[in-house]
Amino acid sequence: MTRQQTPAPTVEELEEQERRLVLRRFTEDDAWALGSLLVGMARKRHAPVAVDIHRAGRQLFRAALPGSAPDNDAWIARKRRVVERYGCASYLVGSRFRAKGTTFEESSRLDPDTYAAHGGSFPITVAGVGVIGAVTVSGLPQVEDHLLVVEALERFLAG
């Protein structure tokens, strides 16, 4: 049986996610709660991912689940740097380049060993403040990494 590929969100859908997924605050305790939620969701799906949450240059949460690999750490760092530089989701940045008929790697003029505009890193945005950090997942296909983070943020905001 072949695995069905998850459809990629459009640029407009990605931008709407960012407008909607804004927090009132984000503390160390919130990082623990969001990270734990993500780990729980990933465990239920047997997802071989690593999870990272950074705020203002400081790592607040990190977990590596069974099946994840050291390469996931490098992907997390590269995707998070895209969020820090552009202030929006790593998948949205890559999608904007693709919508222009090019790729991030070809046109950004940034070192691909340092930056990766692949799905899985999403900005932590606080109302009235702006982007203060990033929550990042690595280990699944990029659309699935992105959607896992979005689903976790939706649950976190609803909780």
Describe the structure.
The protein has one domain: Beta-Lactamase. Helices cover 47% and strands 18% of the residues. Strands 2-1-4-3 form a 4-stranded antiparallel sheet. Strand 3 and strand 4 form a beta hairpin. It is globular, with a radius of gyration of 15 Å. The N and C termini lie far apart (36 Å).
Q: What attributes does this structure have?
A:
159 residues; 4-stranded antiparallel beta sheet; YBR137W-like; Beta-Lactamase; PduO/GlcC-like_sf; UPF0303 protein J5Y05_21615; PduO/GlcC-like; 47% helix; globular; single chain; alpha+beta
What's a concise summary of this model?
This is UPF0303 protein J5Y05_21615. With 159 residues, the chain is of the alpha+beta class.
Summarize the helices and strands and which ones pair or pack.
Elements: H1 11-20, H2 28-44, E1 50-55, E2 58-64, H3 70-86, H4 90-99, H5 104-107, E3 121-126, E4 130-138, H6 142-158
Antiparallel strand pairs: 1-2, 1-4, 3-4
Helix pairs in contact: 2-6
Protein name: UPF0303 protein J5Y05_21615
InterPro entries: PduO/GlcC-like (IPR005624), PduO/GlcC-like_sf (IPR038084), YBR137W-like (IPR010371)
Pfam families: HbpS-like (PF03928)
Structural class per helix/strand content? alpha+beta
How many distinct folded domains?
1
Provide the gyration radius in Å.
Answer: 15 Å
Helix content: 40-55%
User: What is the distance, rounded to the nearest whole angstrom, between the alpha carbons of the first and last residues?
Assistant: 36 Å
Going by CATH, the architecture would be 2-Layer Sandwich
Strand order in space, largest sheet: 2-1-4-3
State the assembly state of the protein chains.
single chain
Characterize the main sheet: 4 strands, antiparallel
Q: What is the CATH level 1 assignment?
A: Alpha Beta
The CATH fourth-level homologous superfamily: Haem-degrading domain
Low-confidence stretches: none
Number of DSSP strand runs: 4
Shape descriptor reads globular
